[in-house]
Amino acid sequence: MPFAQIKDRALISVSGPDAEHFLQNILTTDLDMLAPGEVRPGALLSPQGKILFDFLVSRAGDDGFQLECRADIADDFVRRLMLYRLRAKAEIAKQDQVLVTVAWGDDSTASRSDSTALSDTRFQDITVTRTYGGEARDGGDPNGWLNMRIGNGIAESGSDYQLGDAFPHDVLLDETGGVGFKKGCYIGQEVVSRMQHRGTARRRVLIASADSPLPAAGTELTVAGRLVGTLGSVGHRTGLAIARIDRVKAALDAGEAITAGEIPVRLAIPAWVKYTFPEGAVSAEEA
Q1: Which of 76, 109, 190, 215 could lock onto 261 through a cystine, CB 3.0 to 4.6 A?
Q2: Average pLDDT rounded to a whole number, residues 66-78
Q3: Strand pairing report for 3-15 and 38-45
Q4: Residue 159 located in a structural domain
């Protein structure tokens, strides 16, 4: 089964009798839906609904959780959790530079590979697992993992968007189980719920493709000089983009070229998601 090993990750453990109640009240993820043996995405938001920290959360024993995040944001994340903990009986600790092994394949191969592997629920059409710790080993396929993420429309901070600059809907947390719409209040919940119920999310993850190599991440996507989005992770001729789907639809309806730098690109909605391009296109002035 193909695999890749990811460095520069950290694990934050939160344990104790109040750990679940504490996290449930501040994070977007509905921990009631988190089963043992799986990881779900989530975020800690600002009161305005923007993502301050993104992570993958899994259970660790009867009263513990582990939050996997980028190593470079881990200290700030721990400080923010400490700020919100108040009198909750929950211990918060950080494990630096955790080696994360991701593997992908069909159900039978993945399930037999490692009893400690956690199912990454962000992926809908293929089994992906994550294992924490262990030794570095040869034979990994980091490009294969990048292409897996791109092909499935799975965006991550740092590579695809900047923290503090995106709402959960922008990066598909509403589609990947990273937002609990039936749970109680959490920080930023009012903004996220309003976007959900009013259907006002316009920025979305799209898959970009071109007939020549795409430019670097961060390159603006434009239509006749008008900004419609930005490239994220790039794997040769395919990549992720976060773009205004109403502006993209307007360009498609008008037959206008969408370019990344000087490169014409095609933008497609990931096959597994529920959202579509809007029926009504915006005018050139609105775009």
Answers
A1: 215
A2: 97
A3: unpaired
A4: no
Instruction: Work out how many domains the chain is built from and give that number.
Output: 2
Question: Could you say which of 127, 153, 179 is where a domain stops?
Answer: 153
Residues 6+ apart with CB under 8 A from 21: 88
Is the domain of 48 the same as that of 107? yes
Is the domain of 61 the same as that of 136? yes
- Two tokens at 114? 């490692």
The H or E element containing residue 120 is strand 118-120
Q: How far is 101 from 7, CA to CA, in rounded Å?
A: 9
**Distance between CA atoms of residues 217 and 235, nearest Å:** 10
User: Are residues 116 and 53 located together in one domain of the fold?
Assistant: yes
Task: Give, as one character, the DSSP assignment of residue 46.
Answer: -
> At 204, which amino acid appears?
R
User: Is the C-alpha dihedral spanning 145, 149, 152, 154 positive or negative?
Assistant: positive
Torsion from C-alpha of 154, 143, 127, 112, nearest 10 degrees: -150
Terminus-to-terminus CA distance in the chain, angstroms? 45
- 123: domain CATH number is 3.30.70.1400
Q: Supply the range of the domain harboring residue 260.
A: 202-268
Q: Is residue 127 helix, strand or coil?
A: strand
d(CA 96, CA 81): 16
Taking the model in full, what pTM does it have?
Answer: 0.94
Are residues 134 and 209 located together in one domain of the fold? no
Least confident of 137-151, 193-207, 271-285: 271-285
Evaluate whether 185 touches 208 at the Cβ level (below 8 Å).
Answer: no
Residue 279 lies in a domain: no
